[in-house]
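Fold it.
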Amino acid sequence: MSATTPTQDRTDGTITVDISLGERSYGIDIGSGLLDAMGRSGRLPRGTSALIVTNETVQPLYAGRLQAALQGHYTAVHLVSLPDGEEFKTWQTLQKIFDGLLENGADRKTVLFALGGGVVGDMTGFAAASYMRGVPFVQVPTTLLAQVDSSVGGKTAINHPLGKNMIGAFYQPQWVVCDLDTLDTLPARELAAGIAEVIKYGPISDMDFMAWLEDNMDDLLARDRVAMAHAVKRSCEIKAWVVGQDEREAGLRAILNFGHTFGHAIEAGMGYGAWLHGEGVAAGMVMAAELSQRLGMVDAAFVQRLRTLIERAGLPTRGARIDDKDNAGRYLQLMRVDKKSEAGEIRFVLIDGPGKAVMRPAPDALVREVIDACCA
Protein backbone atom coordinates (compact mmCIF):
# COMPACT_ATOMS: atom_id res chain seq x y z
CA MET A 1 0.00 0.00 0.00
CA SER A 2 1.29 3.44 -0.91
CA ALA A 3 -1.29 5.63 0.76
CA THR A 4 -2.10 9.02 -0.68
CA THR A 5 -4.61 11.68 0.27
CA PRO A 6 -5.38 15.20 -1.04
CA THR A 7 -2.68 17.71 -0.07
CA GLN A 8 -2.43 21.42 -0.78
CA ASP A 9 0.51 23.80 -0.35
CA ARG A 10 -0.83 27.31 0.22
CA THR A 11 0.88 30.51 -0.85
CA ASP A 12 1.77 31.31 2.79
CA GLY A 13 3.75 28.04 3.02
CA THR A 14 1.08 26.19 4.96
CA ILE A 15 0.51 22.57 3.97
CA THR A 16 -3.04 21.21 4.25
CA VAL A 17 -3.87 17.51 4.37
CA ASP A 18 -7.56 16.69 4.05
CA ILE A 19 -9.37 13.98 6.01
CA SER A 20 -12.24 12.81 3.80
CA LEU A 21 -15.13 11.61 5.95
CA GLY A 22 -18.19 13.10 4.27
CA GLU A 23 -19.89 15.63 6.53
CA ARG A 24 -17.20 15.00 9.19
CA SER A 25 -14.34 15.94 6.86
CA TYR A 26 -11.74 18.43 8.06
CA GLY A 27 -8.31 19.80 7.27
CA ILE A 28 -4.94 19.38 8.95
CA ASP A 29 -2.86 22.55 8.59
CA ILE A 30 0.93 22.16 8.90
CA GLY A 31 3.35 25.08 9.01
CA SER A 32 5.03 27.78 11.07
CA GLY A 33 3.32 30.70 12.80
CA LEU A 34 -0.09 29.04 12.69
CA LEU A 35 -0.94 29.40 16.40
CA ASP A 36 -1.07 33.20 16.32
CA ALA A 37 -2.94 33.20 13.01
CA MET A 38 -5.79 30.87 14.03
CA GLY A 39 -8.20 33.76 14.56
CA ARG A 40 -7.71 34.86 10.96
CA SER A 41 -8.56 31.46 9.50
CA GLY A 42 -11.89 30.68 7.94
CA ARG A 43 -11.64 27.20 9.49
CA LEU A 44 -12.30 28.46 13.02
CA PRO A 45 -15.56 26.88 14.23
CA ARG A 46 -18.38 29.25 15.06
CA GLY A 47 -19.62 29.19 18.63
CA THR A 48 -20.66 31.14 21.67
CA SER A 49 -17.69 30.57 23.96
CA ALA A 50 -14.43 28.63 23.92
CA LEU A 51 -12.61 26.47 26.44
CA ILE A 52 -8.90 25.84 25.99
CA VAL A 53 -7.74 22.61 27.63
CA THR A 54 -3.98 22.43 28.18
CA ASN A 55 -1.55 21.19 30.82
CA GLU A 56 0.70 22.83 33.37
CA THR A 57 3.76 22.48 31.11
CA VAL A 58 2.25 23.90 27.93
CA GLN A 59 0.12 26.60 29.58
CA PRO A 60 2.89 29.13 30.26
CA LEU A 61 4.33 28.59 26.78
CA TYR A 62 1.33 28.85 24.49
CA ALA A 63 -2.04 29.25 26.26
CA GLY A 64 -1.88 33.05 26.38
CA ARG A 65 -1.11 33.22 22.67
CA LEU A 66 -4.03 30.96 21.77
CA GLN A 67 -6.36 32.95 24.02
CA ALA A 68 -5.27 36.15 22.28
CA ALA A 69 -5.82 34.59 18.84
CA LEU A 70 -9.36 33.55 19.78
CA GLN A 71 -10.43 36.80 21.44
CA GLY A 72 -13.12 38.56 19.47
CA HIS A 73 -14.40 35.34 17.94
CA TYR A 74 -16.10 34.08 21.10
CA THR A 75 -17.88 35.90 23.93
CA ALA A 76 -15.42 34.36 26.39
CA VAL A 77 -12.30 32.20 26.16
CA HIS A 78 -11.88 30.07 29.29
CA LEU A 79 -8.92 27.91 30.29
CA VAL A 80 -8.49 24.58 32.08
CA SER A 81 -4.99 23.37 32.90
CA LEU A 82 -4.45 19.69 33.68
CA PRO A 83 -1.53 17.95 35.38
CA ASP A 84 1.05 16.77 32.84
CA GLY A 85 1.73 13.10 32.19
CA GLU A 86 0.29 9.80 30.99
CA GLU A 87 -0.38 8.80 34.60
CA PHE A 88 -3.03 11.56 34.75
CA LYS A 89 -5.05 10.26 31.79
CA THR A 90 -7.83 9.20 34.16
CA TRP A 91 -11.49 9.73 35.06
CA GLN A 92 -10.41 12.10 37.83
CA THR A 93 -8.52 14.36 35.43
CA LEU A 94 -11.30 14.16 32.83
CA GLN A 95 -13.67 15.55 35.46
CA LYS A 96 -11.59 18.74 35.59
CA ILE A 97 -12.59 19.43 31.99
CA PHE A 98 -16.27 18.85 32.76
CA ASP A 99 -15.91 21.07 35.84
CA GLY A 100 -14.54 23.85 33.64
CA LEU A 101 -17.37 23.46 31.14
CA LEU A 102 -20.13 23.46 33.75
CA GLU A 103 -18.68 26.19 35.96
CA ASN A 104 -18.44 28.51 32.94
CA GLY A 105 -21.95 27.73 31.69
CA ALA A 106 -20.80 26.02 28.51
CA ASP A 107 -23.55 25.11 26.05
CA ARG A 108 -23.79 23.09 22.83
CA LYS A 109 -22.12 25.93 20.91
CA THR A 110 -19.06 26.01 23.13
CA VAL A 111 -15.90 25.03 21.22
CA LEU A 112 -13.12 23.08 22.96
CA PHE A 113 -9.48 23.57 21.96
CA ALA A 114 -6.97 20.85 22.86
CA LEU A 115 -3.61 22.60 23.32
CA GLY A 116 -0.89 20.08 24.15
CA GLY A 117 0.26 16.56 23.46
CA GLY A 118 -1.56 13.29 23.03
CA VAL A 119 -2.89 13.07 26.58
CA VAL A 120 -4.50 16.51 26.37
CA GLY A 121 -5.86 15.79 22.89
CA ASP A 122 -7.33 12.41 23.81
CA MET A 123 -9.01 13.69 26.95
CA THR A 124 -10.32 16.90 25.36
CA GLY A 125 -11.77 14.90 22.48
CA PHE A 126 -13.44 12.48 24.89
CA ALA A 127 -14.87 15.40 26.87
CA ALA A 128 -16.14 17.01 23.65
CA ALA A 129 -17.78 13.74 22.59
CA SER A 130 -19.48 13.39 25.97
CA TYR A 131 -20.48 16.92 27.04
CA MET A 132 -24.14 17.50 26.12
CA ARG A 133 -23.65 14.44 23.85
CA GLY A 134 -21.24 16.26 21.61
CA VAL A 135 -19.73 19.73 21.15
CA PRO A 136 -17.17 20.86 18.54
CA PHE A 137 -13.46 20.72 19.23
CA VAL A 138 -10.18 21.66 17.60
CA GLN A 139 -6.84 19.91 17.98
CA VAL A 140 -3.78 22.16 18.46
CA PRO A 141 -1.03 19.57 19.03
CA THR A 142 2.26 20.84 20.46
CA THR A 143 4.23 17.56 20.39
CA LEU A 144 5.49 15.69 17.36
CA LEU A 145 3.72 12.51 18.47
CA ALA A 146 0.39 14.33 18.61
CA GLN A 147 0.96 16.10 15.28
CA VAL A 148 1.68 12.90 13.36
CA ASP A 149 -0.68 10.52 15.13
CA SER A 150 -2.97 11.12 18.08
CA SER A 151 -4.52 14.44 16.97
CA VAL A 152 -5.59 12.95 13.63
CA GLY A 153 -8.44 10.51 13.15
CA GLY A 154 -10.81 11.08 16.05
CA LYS A 155 -9.75 8.38 18.51
CA THR A 156 -10.31 9.74 22.02
CA ALA A 157 -9.89 7.93 25.33
CA ILE A 158 -8.63 7.67 28.87
CA ASN A 159 -6.63 4.86 30.44
CA HIS A 160 -7.72 2.18 32.89
CA PRO A 161 -5.25 0.53 35.28
CA LEU A 162 -5.78 -2.73 33.38
CA GLY A 163 -5.43 -1.32 29.87
CA LYS A 164 -4.44 1.74 27.85
CA ASN A 165 -7.11 3.77 26.01
CA MET A 166 -9.81 1.24 26.85
CA ILE A 167 -12.51 3.83 27.63
CA GLY A 168 -13.29 6.39 24.95
CA ALA A 169 -15.11 7.27 21.74
CA PHE A 170 -14.55 7.90 18.05
CA TYR A 171 -15.17 11.64 17.68
CA GLN A 172 -13.61 13.78 14.95
CA PRO A 173 -12.22 17.27 15.50
CA GLN A 174 -13.31 20.07 13.20
CA TRP A 175 -9.75 21.24 12.52
CA VAL A 176 -6.18 20.22 13.34
CA VAL A 177 -3.50 22.92 13.57
CA CYS A 178 0.11 21.67 13.58
CA ASP A 179 2.33 24.67 14.28
CA LEU A 180 5.88 23.37 13.80
CA ASP A 181 7.23 26.25 15.89
CA THR A 182 5.83 24.62 19.03
CA LEU A 183 8.27 21.74 18.56
CA ASP A 184 11.15 24.08 19.47
CA THR A 185 10.21 23.83 23.15
CA LEU A 186 9.80 20.05 23.10
CA PRO A 187 12.33 18.16 25.25
CA ALA A 188 14.65 15.89 23.26
CA ARG A 189 13.15 12.75 24.82
CA GLU A 190 9.64 13.80 23.76
CA LEU A 191 10.86 14.62 20.26
CA ALA A 192 12.36 11.14 19.91
CA ALA A 193 9.12 9.60 21.18
CA GLY A 194 7.27 11.40 18.40
CA ILE A 195 9.73 10.16 15.80
CA ALA A 196 8.75 6.61 16.78
CA GLU A 197 5.25 7.26 15.47
CA VAL A 198 6.74 8.73 12.29
CA ILE A 199 8.95 5.66 11.74
CA LYS A 200 5.99 3.26 11.93
CA TYR A 201 4.49 4.62 8.71
CA GLY A 202 7.37 3.26 6.63
CA PRO A 203 7.14 -0.47 7.43
CA ILE A 204 3.33 -0.52 7.28
CA SER A 205 2.82 1.53 4.13
CA ASP A 206 5.67 3.35 2.42
CA MET A 207 9.22 2.02 2.22
CA ASP A 208 10.29 5.09 0.20
CA PHE A 209 9.37 7.14 3.28
CA MET A 210 11.41 4.78 5.45
CA ALA A 211 14.40 5.35 3.15
CA TRP A 212 13.82 9.11 3.40
CA LEU A 213 13.87 8.82 7.20
CA GLU A 214 17.17 6.96 7.02
CA ASP A 215 18.61 9.80 4.92
CA ASN A 216 17.14 12.61 7.03
CA MET A 217 17.14 11.37 10.64
CA ASP A 218 19.89 13.79 11.69
CA ASP A 219 17.89 16.74 10.30
CA LEU A 220 14.78 15.60 12.16
CA LEU A 221 16.68 15.35 15.43
CA ALA A 222 18.04 18.86 14.76
CA ARG A 223 14.43 20.06 14.20
CA ASP A 224 15.16 21.26 10.68
CA ARG A 225 11.95 22.95 9.51
CA VAL A 226 11.95 21.54 5.97
CA ALA A 227 12.59 17.97 7.14
CA MET A 228 10.05 18.25 9.95
CA ALA A 229 7.37 19.63 7.63
CA HIS A 230 7.83 16.70 5.24
CA ALA A 231 7.79 14.13 8.06
CA VAL A 232 4.56 15.54 9.53
CA LYS A 233 2.97 15.92 6.09
CA ARG A 234 3.73 12.37 4.93
CA SER A 235 2.68 10.86 8.26
CA CYS A 236 -0.62 12.74 8.16
CA GLU A 237 -1.20 11.79 4.50
CA ILE A 238 -0.86 8.10 5.29
CA LYS A 239 -3.00 8.29 8.40
CA ALA A 240 -5.63 10.40 6.63
CA TRP A 241 -5.88 7.84 3.82
CA VAL A 242 -6.24 4.95 6.25
CA VAL A 243 -8.81 6.75 8.43
CA GLY A 244 -10.75 7.71 5.31
CA GLN A 245 -11.04 4.00 4.45
CA ASP A 246 -11.79 2.74 7.96
CA GLU A 247 -12.83 5.45 10.40
CA ARG A 248 -13.84 3.14 13.26
CA GLU A 249 -11.06 0.57 13.02
CA ALA A 250 -13.16 -2.27 11.65
CA GLY A 251 -10.14 -3.60 9.79
CA LEU A 252 -7.53 -1.59 7.87
CA ARG A 253 -7.06 1.16 10.47
CA ALA A 254 -5.68 -1.34 12.96
CA ILE A 255 -2.40 -1.39 11.00
CA LEU A 256 -1.66 2.04 12.49
CA ASN A 257 -1.10 0.18 15.76
CA PHE A 258 2.13 -1.43 14.55
CA GLY A 259 4.26 -1.91 17.68
CA HIS A 260 1.45 -0.76 19.96
CA THR A 261 0.32 -4.15 21.29
CA PHE A 262 3.73 -4.82 22.82
CA GLY A 263 4.22 -1.12 23.59
CA HIS A 264 0.96 -0.72 25.50
CA ALA A 265 1.89 -3.75 27.60
CA ILE A 266 5.17 -2.07 28.50
CA GLU A 267 3.39 1.17 29.45
CA ALA A 268 0.81 -0.59 31.60
CA GLY A 269 3.26 -3.06 33.10
CA MET A 270 5.83 -0.41 34.06
CA GLY A 271 3.19 2.02 35.29
CA TYR A 272 1.89 4.85 33.07
CA GLY A 273 4.51 7.57 32.71
CA ALA A 274 7.60 5.42 33.36
CA TRP A 275 8.01 4.88 29.61
CA LEU A 276 6.78 7.48 27.14
CA HIS A 277 4.23 6.16 24.66
CA GLY A 278 6.61 6.53 21.75
CA GLU A 279 9.34 4.67 23.62
CA GLY A 280 7.00 1.73 24.16
CA VAL A 281 6.00 1.81 20.49
CA ALA A 282 9.68 1.87 19.42
CA ALA A 283 10.55 -1.27 21.37
CA GLY A 284 7.20 -2.76 20.38
CA MET A 285 7.94 -2.30 16.66
CA VAL A 286 11.16 -4.26 17.00
CA MET A 287 9.30 -7.01 18.88
CA ALA A 288 6.54 -7.10 16.24
CA ALA A 289 9.15 -7.23 13.47
CA GLU A 290 10.94 -10.08 15.28
CA LEU A 291 7.62 -11.93 15.51
CA SER A 292 7.03 -11.30 11.80
CA GLN A 293 10.45 -12.78 11.01
CA ARG A 294 9.82 -15.89 13.13
CA LEU A 295 6.57 -16.39 11.21
CA GLY A 296 8.50 -16.23 7.93
CA MET A 297 6.99 -12.92 6.79
CA VAL A 298 10.16 -10.79 6.64
CA ASP A 299 13.87 -11.56 6.73
CA ALA A 300 16.46 -10.75 9.39
CA ALA A 301 17.88 -7.91 7.27
CA PHE A 302 14.56 -6.03 7.45
CA VAL A 303 14.39 -6.41 11.23
CA GLN A 304 17.94 -5.13 11.59
CA ARG A 305 17.22 -2.19 9.27
CA LEU A 306 14.26 -1.17 11.41
CA ARG A 307 16.23 -1.66 14.63
CA THR A 308 19.06 0.52 13.32
CA LEU A 309 16.69 3.35 12.34
CA ILE A 310 15.04 3.28 15.77
CA GLU A 311 18.45 3.33 17.46
CA ARG A 312 19.47 6.37 15.39
CA ALA A 313 16.43 8.20 16.73
CA GLY A 314 17.70 7.58 20.27
CA LEU A 315 14.86 5.20 21.07
CA PRO A 316 14.83 1.86 22.94
CA THR A 317 14.93 -1.28 20.83
CA ARG A 318 14.48 -3.72 23.71
CA GLY A 319 11.35 -4.14 25.81
CA ALA A 320 11.20 -3.77 29.56
CA ARG A 321 11.04 -6.53 32.14
CA ILE A 322 7.65 -5.96 33.71
CA ASP A 323 7.60 -9.09 35.90
CA ASP A 324 10.58 -10.75 37.56
CA LYS A 325 8.97 -14.19 37.78
CA ASP A 326 7.14 -14.64 34.47
CA ASN A 327 7.85 -11.66 32.26
CA ALA A 328 6.39 -13.17 29.09
CA GLY A 329 3.31 -14.34 30.98
CA ARG A 330 2.67 -10.82 32.25
CA TYR A 331 3.03 -9.42 28.72
CA LEU A 332 0.50 -11.95 27.42
CA GLN A 333 -1.90 -11.13 30.24
CA LEU A 334 -1.79 -7.40 29.46
CA MET A 335 -1.95 -7.90 25.69
CA ARG A 336 -5.13 -9.94 26.00
CA VAL A 337 -6.80 -6.76 27.27
CA ASP A 338 -5.70 -4.95 24.09
CA LYS A 339 -8.55 -3.59 21.95
CA LYS A 340 -7.43 -5.68 18.98
CA SER A 341 -7.88 -8.95 20.90
CA GLU A 342 -10.90 -11.06 20.05
CA ALA A 343 -12.30 -13.66 22.45
CA GLY A 344 -9.02 -13.57 24.37
CA GLU A 345 -6.94 -14.16 21.23
CA ILE A 346 -4.22 -11.55 20.74
CA ARG A 347 -4.10 -10.16 17.21
CA PHE A 348 -0.83 -8.52 16.24
CA VAL A 349 0.01 -5.98 13.56
CA LEU A 350 2.74 -7.79 11.63
CA ILE A 351 4.82 -6.94 8.56
CA ASP A 352 3.99 -9.22 5.63
CA GLY A 353 6.84 -8.00 3.50
CA PRO A 354 8.31 -4.46 3.74
CA GLY A 355 5.63 -1.80 3.34
CA LYS A 356 2.68 -4.11 3.98
CA ALA A 357 1.03 -4.68 7.35
CA VAL A 358 -1.51 -7.35 8.28
CA MET A 359 -3.46 -8.34 11.38
CA ARG A 360 -3.15 -11.90 12.59
CA PRO A 361 -2.75 -14.02 15.74
CA ALA A 362 0.43 -15.86 16.68
CA PRO A 363 1.04 -18.90 18.90
CA ASP A 364 1.67 -18.00 22.53
CA ALA A 365 4.84 -20.09 22.55
CA LEU A 366 6.29 -18.05 19.70
CA VAL A 367 5.27 -14.77 21.31
CA ARG A 368 6.99 -15.89 24.51
CA GLU A 369 10.17 -16.57 22.53
CA VAL A 370 10.10 -13.05 21.11
CA ILE A 371 9.51 -11.46 24.50
CA ASP A 372 12.31 -13.47 26.10
CA ALA A 373 14.68 -12.57 23.27
CA CYS A 374 13.76 -8.87 23.09
CA CYS A 375 13.44 -7.80 26.71
CA ALA A 376 16.28 -6.35 28.74
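Residues 225-245 form the longest helix (21 residues).
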